[in-house]
Structures are given as C-alpha cells and as structure tokens.
Amino acid sequence: MGQTFAEKILGSKAGKRVAPGEIVEVCPDIAMSHDNTAAIAKTFKEIGVERIHDPDRHVIILDHCVPAANEKFAQNHKDIRAFVQEQGISNFFDIERGICHQVLPEEGFALPGTLIVGSDSHTTTYGAFGSLATGIGRSEMAVIFATGKIWLRVPETMKVVVNGVLPKGLTSKDVMLKLIGDYSVDGGLYKSVWFTGPVIDEMSVASRMVLTNMAVEFGAKNGYMEPDDKTLAFLQNRSRRPFRVVRSDADAGIDQVIEMNVNSLEPQVACPHTVDNVKPVSAVAGTKIDQVFFGSCTNGRLEDFEIVAGVLRGRKVHPSIRMIIIPASQQAFVQALEKGYIQTLAAAGAVIVNSGCGPCMGNHEGVPAPGERVLSTSNRNFKGRFGCKDAEVYLCSPLTAAVSALTGVITDFRKAGAF
Amino acid sequence: MSIISGKIWKYGDDVNTDVIFPGKYTYTVTDPKEMARIAMEDLDPNFAAQVRPGDVIVAGKNFGCGSSREQAAFCLKYAGVGAVVARSFSRLYFRNCINAGLPVITLPHSPDLFKAGDVIEIHLAEGYLSCSAGRFEFPPLPDAVIGIFNDGGLIPHTRKVLGLER
Ligand code: SF4
Questions:
Q1: What is the pTM of this model?
Q2: A46 and B155: CB-CB below 8 Å?
C-alpha cells in the first residue's frame, strides 16, 4: 500500500516508514512562536540549556497585542526582544509586520513538503502550501528550543472533496463553516485533513488558507492542499530554501472521505458560542449587531479587502455599528492602501487599526461590552473569546460582514439588492 | 502510581480552552496560584473556589478544544484537579495535559452516567476508575508518552533525558 502525505513527511523525518497511530520523535523544519515566546523562553531557561539548539529553525513574530496595550504586554515584548538578541535568532519580526499566520507565508517560510510546528493552534494555516503544519504547546516549544525535537503521533487521513461551483459571492469561509456545522467541531479530530476537488482547484491561495486556518476548528491535527501552479507562483521569489512537493500515493490509506457539493450553498453564519453552531444566513438574518470585526488570520487578506471595499464604496457604515478593520499583515495593509481600499473604508466610517490580532482573542482594539453582539470574520466565537464573557460573537464571510455593517443587522447579501 | 480520589465536577461536550482559561489572561496571569483562581472562570464561577485536591473533571467529547494555550491544562493542575476524564480530548489539550503531568483518561461512556459531587477513585496504573455509577476500565496511555508522564511532565522529563536533573 502507498503512503499518505502525513506518513511520507513524518516518515522522512523519523527516518523510517511509519503508520497511523505510531508516535515518532522528529525535528521540525520550522518552529514558530509569537507573543508567547517570553513564557517559552522562561521554561527553556528552566530546563537548564544555555543556547538554542538551532536558531535558524525558529521564527518569532510579535502580533497578539501590538503595539502593547499596557505595561505587562510591553514587558512581555521587551523580554522577547532581549531573548532574540541573546540567542541570535535572525528570523524575528517585530510589531510592525502583522499576524504570524500571514507573515510566515509572505516571508517564504511555509513550504511544500516541510514539517512546521507553532505554539499557536492556527499554525494549521500553512498546510495551504502543502506543508504538514500543526499547533503545539509552550512547553513543547521550549523543548524544541533545547533539543530541536518533538514527539508527534502519525495521523490518519481524511479527504474532504469539495465539488460543484460556488454560487456568486460565496467563499471558502462559507464552505468551511458549512463543513464544521455539518460534521461538528470534532469531525476531523486528530486527523490530517486533505482538502481537494474542483472548488479547491478554483480557489486562490488566500482562499485556501481560510480552510486550513480553520482546520483546527474541525478538530484536525493539520489541514492541507496539494500544491499546484498557483501555490508555486505564490512561492516564487519568496521561498527561503529549496523544497520538494509531497503528495499522497494513489493507493494510500484514507480513513474517511467526505464529499461536499456547494452548488446550492447559502452564506453561512456560526452562532454563539461554538463554531459548529452554524446556520444558513436566512435563519439569523435580522439579528441586531453592535460591532463588525473584519480582520484576523482567517479573513484579513487583500482579496477580502477587495470584497469589503467593493460593498462599502460610496456608502456609510450603519450609525449603530462600530466597524473595526484590521489587515492580516502590513503587506496587506500597504496593498490595500495602494488599491484605494483603505480610503474607501475610512470614508465609509470604519475604524482602521494596524495589523495584528486585535480583539480576536480579547486583548484590545475593540473588546465588546456585556450584552453586545459582534459579527466577525475571524475563526472563533467561544464565550469570552473577544474579552467579554457576556458578549456574543457570530462568524461569517467578509461579504456577509460588510453588507451587515451597512444595515446594522445580520443580512443575506443575496437579498440586499445592490450588492 | 498513586490512587487519585476526589469529587466529580461534571461538564458537557466541547468545553473549550477559552472558558477553561480566558484568552485575555494569557500574557498577564502567570503565577500558579492566580492561574488556579481563574480556572474555569467563564464556565463555572464556583469551580475555582470550591475545587479540592484530587477532584476529577468528567466531561463529554472534545474536551479542551480551541487554543494551544497550555495554561488551560496547567491551571487545572494548579487548582488541584487529579485527573480529567472525557469521551475524547482535542489533540492539543491531550498533549498539553501529558506535558503538564495531568492525567487524561479517555472513557467512551457518556458523562450522564456520572453524578456531579459523587466520590470517584482512579487507579491509573491498573487502568480503572470507580464511583457509585460502577467500575470502568480505560486503556493505558501510549508507551511512547508514558515516560514523560511518569517523570512529572515534559520539562522534568527533558531535564532527565539531558542529564540536567536538579
Ligand atoms: S488573529 Fe486571532 S486566531 Fe489568528 S493568530 Fe491572532 S488571535 Fe489567533
């Protein structure tokens, strides 16, 4: 029998043929950490090792609370800068660059056939470039600092085949919410989820990143697409090192196959407080909202800006809505400026914030008040996620978010005439 | 390995890391005592004040889903929780508990069988637990990770492997 993508990558790292369920000790190619690096560095010191095993494997990005919201966050950043300096880590990106999951691919670290770990659950995002990428804990990252190694279980593989043609205005976000809604937040638990099919082939690289980003919301260990011409074009002039495309063999062991057809897909909304509490927009249309958040590592890229600016051009955000916009990276910010999207959004009355995580995990820049409702393009709507346990968070696509920002209520863009 | 014994705290499916350890504290609360005080803050306001050493959490499927934050494992350990029993765990949470040295037991039975407040005993080495609902067996942890667990967690284990034990 042939081997799956995950078996090949973990097997080549372990130096032997491996099977699902097996636990192997491996050296990841890239290990990413962010604002949690200060805590990791502290644990690393506790181990008793002086120098990082291989500084060049590590990428450190400040993004979770940038610029620092208060003294504690500032101290955290200061400690990280000192550690980076002390250990000679050259792949360091300070507060001006944006969200790790966008910056890593932009900077050419997310490469086909590689093994990437990150002390952040949405590390799965890099699977859109054909890497095996998964989240790990802080202690595990401290041990990688010390030894270069980590234990991983070889996952079973699930194939998600997305068939049909997406109706106008529907995006990868709607596809992913539908998948999670239908199969629940543990539908892909522990699995390596392979996204494939004609709808995936049609998608841009940025759209594919939405699926792999939210693979963790589906319980998966990792999510990935096989690289194609679009992936290779993205990587051209970006990739930091040579790479090799890895694909599953035709006769590899696939644990489960899910077939979706999107021909009559409706825009989807995940309602509070779980990501699988998904309803078609028609079932929640009219729900009053107080804040719209357009940003995050899920949907804050240039193509999302094009959609949102297209809706808001020449219009005004509804007076009862605070619209907060955060580009996924500084690069996306600059491109959106060059295209005139930022001017359009500012003129529409949106608040535009520097790139970073913002309110997505409740740190700053738009924490809601008790009793308020937020409609967000991010990936999680858990109770308290936006920093207030008595607020509600709904998740949707950038188009649904933009149209709803104009009306003040969750809106089906297909019924909103002009859009 | 000793017997874990305490009271049952019962929760449902998909208990996520944000309700176990809210995101807004992840960069500001680091002291073990303070971490214990906010454990389960957004799910069960009585938990932190009333949990006693050895108490056991019994929950449904996908316990610990969401973030990679290992404080969600450590805060329960610091609060004195003896073990977490669930139908299934999110993979990151399962890893974080092993790395924290907090016993995680996957039991396919519905948590509905168990009564909150009931006394439970867990015999880790023998692979069974008992309470008024009966005696239930569970599979041992995989060989490859039991060493980490027996050493008290990933950091002490790594120190041991590297010969840096204090
Ligand atoms: S934008 Fe949100 S989900 Fe993405 S890395 Fe930041 S906090 Fe995590």
A1: 0.94
A2: yes
